[in-house]
Design brief:
By secondary structure, this protein is of the alpha+beta class. The protein is 37% helix and 31% strand. The longest helix is centred in the middle third of the chain and has 22 residues.
């Protein structure tokens, strides 16, 4: 495993753990003129200037996502900065007392503080939404940058491998990477196809056990494992997937 990958994965695990213990100090709701709402939940400790922001009522595909952001003040006002596509992204900005919000795919829109909506809002509900989206991978997908060259390369190699599998076993399987599970650190440091390839090679060695399988899926996780659905095999790989994955897969596919 590359020397720099282990600390990165450890940091990711720590961040995921701390998400469970987020505590709200206060919450505010801002309203747009076309029915949009922006919920801002200030987190403990207040001195860290961290918040959760959820924007709703837009046409963005990311509508409703509850993102962790940092309040950064400057001479012109303040920016609420989160992470999107691998870089800083200002989801809410304040200039001379005026606020403006934006989600990817929609035009920025002005919002004003709304006391009635604030009184009715639930900070706990925003915290819960954030946690659920962390667990589902939605936030990871929003934050990670695009890796089109690598994704194209790995997809091509997977296509060649699954074609060989289908020819050898008489199957008609497809292969899919669950890209949202592969963080930027993993994409930068790990040969993702090498870590996923055992799923195809060991399936080809166990043709009888994959006769009804039409979908092979590889995702990244903390421990190696295989889940079998009605017609799907989902392999959870790790940085040790290339070396240790075959044995794990052989044990599961031979049952």
């Amino acid at each position: 495993m590359p020397r720099t990958l282990a600390p990165a994965l450890m940091l990711a695990a720590i961040l995921a753990t701390t998400a469970h213990s987020l505590e709200a100090v206060a919450g505010k709701v801002y309203r747009g003129t076309d029915g949009q709402s922006v919920e801002v939940v200030t987190l403990e400790p207040r001195t860290a200037s961290e918040v959760l922001i959820r924007v709703r009522g837009t046409d963005s595909e990311e509508d409703g996502i509850a993102l962790r952001a940092t309040l950064k003040k400057h001479s012109r006002g303040a920016d609420y900065v989160t992470r999107h596509r691998g870089g800083d992204y200002v989801i809410l900005l304040q200039r001379d007392g005026r606020y403006e919000a934006v989600l990817p795919g929609v035009q920025a829109f002005p919002v004003k503080f709304n006391q009635d909506a604030t009184d009715k809002a639930s900070t706990a509900e925003v915290l819960t939404a954030h946690q659920q989206q962390l667990e589902s991978g939605r936030i990871a997908a929003f934050q990670k940058k695009a890796w089109p060259h690598l994704e194209k390369k790995y997809t091509a190699r997977a296509g060649e491998a699954v074609a060989a599998l289908n020819k050898a076993c008489g199957t008609s399987s497809t292969f899919t990477f669950e890209w949202k599970s592969f963080s930027d650190e993993v994409m930068a440091e790990l040969d993702v196809w090498a870590a996923c390839a055992p799923l195809v090679s060991r399936a080809q060695a166990h043709c009888a056990s994959v006769k009804t399988v039409t979908s092979l899926v590889c995702r990244f996780g903390p421990t190696l494992g295989l889940e079998r659905g009605k017609d799907t095999l989902t392999f959870t790989t790790t940085p040790k997937g290339a070396a240790e994955g075959p044995a794990v897969l052989d044990r599961n596919l031979s049952r």
